[in-house]
Specification:
Elements lengths: L11 H5 L2 H6 L1 H52 L2 H8 L31
């Protein structure tokens, strides 16, 4: 008895990838290409957005530092001794005595008592 010889199987990949199969699946390949383009575009858009966020954060930090610096400068300049030094060239000085209160006379002018003249 002889042992039956196994026939060499046809190349499976070659049988699947024939011209007719490729032509039949062109819409699917185009769909895959479109999805790949969208995926790449989404990645670029995400990178651009992250760069914009980082730039905005840097600008925000710079503005916060500037705000704090200006606020500290304003606090320093608004101290009493700084104000006295700033107005000294104009001849203004701080009074050494307490201010005097001037009483105001209350005069009520009644327009109801006056009769209109004709």
């Amino acid at each position: 008895m002889s042992v039956p010889e196994k026939q060499a199987p046809k190349n499976a990949l070659k049988s699947i990838l024939n011209y007719q199969w490729i032509v039949m699946n062109i819409p699917f390949f185009l769909f895959l290409a479109f999805i790949a383009i969208l995926y790449i575009a989404n990645g670029h858009l995400a990178d651009k957005t992250i760069r914009q966020i980082n730039t905005t954060q840097k600008e925000l930090k710079e503005l916060q530092f500037e705000y704090k610096t200006l606020k500290a400068e304003l606090m320093r300049r608004s101290r009493a001794i700084e104000i006295e030094n700033a107005v000294a060239p104009y001849g203004l000085v701080v009074a050494k005595e307490m201010p005097i209160r001037i009483p105001i006379e209350k005069k009520i002018i009644s327009t109801q008592n006056q009769a209109p003249t004709k």
